[in-house]
């Protein structure tokens, strides 16, 4: 705005600013455009999406978004173009969400043990722990490292600082003692 001594030029500049603000899409114009082109917007969404409910949701959401951003639509003639572009963008987003949902659903769900199976597993685990406590210390260490920590015999030997032959002997004797202890509790 120019600042001059003439008050009439200040008044005309403020009118020009008001006119520029009024040039954007009005609520009435947007609503009329939406009503007049609702079916074509719905058809556009239907070409991009596959179910009617989603199409209606997308078109309504497009109206809401353009309504809230109507001040950015300077030329009222471009209101329909903004609505169409918003419908296309929202349809793409809906498809992306669907594809992501399908990817997540297509992954197999892990098999869940029944409550009965879980109870049996818990009993077996408790029995195994009790049987492991009856073994000699070295036998228990070898079996835990070999079968529960998934180490090779050589790795067990290095970890415990014993020979490979000792690992094999402790493992063999430990498994035999464990079988006897498990059969006694069964």
From TrEMBL:
NCBIfam families: SigE-fam_strep, sigma70-ECF
InterPro entries registered for this protein in UniProt: RNA_pol_sigma-70-like, RNA_pol_sigma-70_dom, RNA_pol_sigma-E_actinobac, RNA_pol_sigma70_r2, RNA_pol_sigma70_r4_t2, RNA_pol_sigma_r2, RNA_pol_sigma_r3/r4-like, WH-like_DNA-bd_sf
This protein's UniProt keywords: DNA-binding, Sigma factor, Transcription, Transcription regulation
Source taxonomy: Bacteria, Bacillati, Actinomycetota, Actinomycetes, Kitasatosporales
One Pfam family linked to the record: Sigma70_r2
Name of the protein: SigE family RNA polymerase sigma factor
Residues annotated as domain RNA polymerase sigma factor 70 region 4 type: 126-178
Organism superkingdom: Bacteria
Protein family per UniProt: Belongs to the sigma-70 factor family. ECF subfamily.
Every RNA polymerase sigma-70 region domain range: 34-98
